[in-house]
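pasting for ref
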Amino acid sequence: MAWLFRDRSEVRAGDELHLAIAGNRQAEAVYSLDNAMIAAGKTLGVSTSPGILLPGFDS
């Protein structure tokens, strides 16, 4: 599976690496309070969540 982003995103390289490893290892979820990382994870098919419900964060 290719983990290179085809478009520009606001996700840092380190976060992209975390998502790639999580996807490769079939992680159940990745928790982050970074909305850009959550959105990128969903785009890549990696289950991402803030883990808690806070105003302004996706669930």
